[in-house]
Every structure is written in structure tokens, then in C-alpha cells.
Amino acid sequence: MQFQRYGVYYTPRPGALANFGMSWLGWDPVSGETVAHPELEGLPRPVSEITATPRKYGLHGTIKPPFFLAKGTDATGLLSRFEQLCATLAPITLEGLVLARLGGFIALKVEGNQSALAELAGTVMRELDAFRAAPSEAELARRRKANLSPAQEALLAQWGYPYVMEEFRFHITLSGRLGRDVEATIEALGPHIAPILPRPFELDSLTLVGEDDDGMFHEIQRQALTG
Predict the structure, then answer these.
(1) Is 5:56 a contact under the CB 8 Å cutoff?
(2) Are 177 and 105 in contact (CB under 8 A)?
(3) For the chain, what is the domain count?
């Protein structure tokens, strides 16, 4: 399959959290198939509406945001470099994940110190950046609609994305913007997801993903961190 953009994500290994993510978001990036949503009581909106925005990405935490390939590079070279890089990176053990509000949406966030994860993400950003094409003016304009700080503007100019390096905050998005429905969604979803949240949270692999022509993301390769 040909992809228009590529990225590096944390995605959960097969198991309870991965199964929840496929069902909740309605998309399995491994098989490339849609999945039926769960029926949960107490939600303020249908699951399909709550998850419409993040569905195309699958359940993930962004490590290197999606990018177009730079001229002179190709997917084969990217995959090879990705494999080499993962062989130099050590697994990370963090305190755990927790369901939380993040602005106007809900997400899973890391509990405790996540400096090791931020350092890993920064390394991936730097080491794979030769494969990233510079963003178009349209992309830059779209990012700037978020009222970026001067620091974020500088990161956007250097890395093509404003929320990296010192602005990096790992999270696993579970919804689009919910406005006043955020708390009700957390209350209804919390009891279902709490038993499957990992504690500790071990990040021992990364996943290279690709975006198809319909905007849906697929797993290209999961690679263990063996450094």
C-alpha cells in the first residue's frame, strides 16, 4: 500500500488496551478495518460522534508527528532507518496512564515524571528528520491558527510541528473537542477503562505508521526498542 504521510507512534501491543482502542475509536490500524463501537451507558453523545476526530489515527501516542517524505527519500529508506534507530533506544518504564481532561477533549496521560519519554521523542524527531519534507505554507497557516507562543512558533519553523521538544506532552487522544460534555464523558468511560490502564506503563516498542489516501493511518511496522 502506498502512503501519503508517515509518522512514529506509540501503539499498545495486542491485548486489552489495544482492543479497547480499536472498539472505542472504531478503527484497527493493524488490519486496516473499521470496528464496531461499544455500547456504553451514560455517555452524553454517541461514541461515533465523540471519537470522529481521532478515529483515523487509531489509538496512539505521537512520538514523531505525521510528515510527507522529503525529496530524495523513500519509504524503504525510512523503514530501514527506523529499524536501526529502535535498536539504539532503550525501553522506558513510567508510572502509569490515567484518563484525564486535556483542554476540550479527553485523553490518557502519563502519571509521574515523563522526562525519559520526552528525551526519547526528541531523539526520534532529530534522527528521522532528514526524511521530513518542509511543511507547505498552507500547513504552516493551519498550525498558526492555534495562537502559538513564540517558542512554539520557533519549533514549528524548525521541526514542522509546534508541540515537540520542550513543548512535547505525551498523550493518547480519545475524543474530539467536547466542550461542556468532557466531564460527563470521563465519568461514563472511566469505570470501563480504569481496569485496563497499565501500571507501570512500559514503552518497549515504537510503530511506524502511514496515512492512506482516505486519511486513515495504518501500522507499517512495530519495532522493539532493544538499545
Answers:
(1) no
(2) yes
(3) 1
